[in-house]
Amino acid sequence: MIQAGDVIRGLMAAGEMVLPDNERIARELAKYPNESDRVLIWEPARQIANRNKQKPTYQTIRDAVLEIVPSDRTKKIWTNDLLRRLEKARRALNMSPDFSILGLDSMLKIVFELVKIRQALDEIQMLAENRAAQLQREHKRKQNL
C-alpha cells in the first residue's frame, strides 16, 4: 500500500492528471523504482487502454513497458514476479486437507477447481518445457560453432 501511495504521489508530482484508480495498477508501476520510468510507462499505458476503450490494467502497464524499459530489465522483473507467484502457489497448495468433513457439493466444487488448476499448470508446464528445449538446442548449436 505504501509503494502504491508513493507511485500516486510521484505521478501527481510529475503533473499527471489521470492516475491509477486501484492499488493493483500502482503496485505494477511500483516494480519500476525509477520515478521517471513510471511516468514514461504510465502515459503509453493509458494510450494502450484508450485504444481498447478501457481503463489501464496491469497488463496495459506491461505492454507499455515492452515499448519503453530495456528488455533485460523487463525480463528480470517479470521473471522475479512469476517465480514469486509460483512459490506462493506451491506453498498454498502444500497442505493436508481433511475431506472427511465435507459433503458432496463441496467435494465436487473442490474437484472442479483442482481440475482447472491442473489444466492451467499443464499448459504452463508445456510452454516452459518447450522454451527450455528451444534454449538447449540454441546452446548446443552455439557450442558446436
Give a nutshell description of this structure.
It is built from 6 helices and no strands. With 145 residues, the chain is mainly α.
Account of the 3D structure:
It is a single chain. The model has no long low-confidence stretch (mean pLDDT about 85). It is extended and about 60 Å long. Helix 1 crosses helix 2 and helix 3 packs across helix 4. By secondary structure, the chain is mostly helical. It has helices at about 1-15, 25-30, 35-50, 60-70, 70-95, 105-145.
Helices and strands, in order, run as: HHHHHH
CATH topology of the largest domain: Helicase, Ruva Protein, domain 3
Q: Provide the CATH top-level class of the largest domain.
A: Mainly Alpha
Shape: extended
First and last CA, distance: 51 Å
Total number of domains: 2
CATH architecture of the largest domain: Orthogonal Bundle
Bin the helical content.
over 70%
**Count the strands?**
0
Number of helices: 6
Largest sheet: none
Poorly predicted regions? none
Briefly note the structural class of the backbone: mainly alpha
Cα-based radius of gyration, to the nearest Å: 21 Å
List keywords for this structure.
77% helix, Helicase, Ruva Protein, domain 3, 145 residues, 2 domains, mainly alpha
How would you summarize the topology of this molecule?
Elements: H1 2-13, H2 23-30, H3 35-51, H4 58-68, H5 71-93, H6 104-144
Helix pairs in contact: 1-2, 3-4
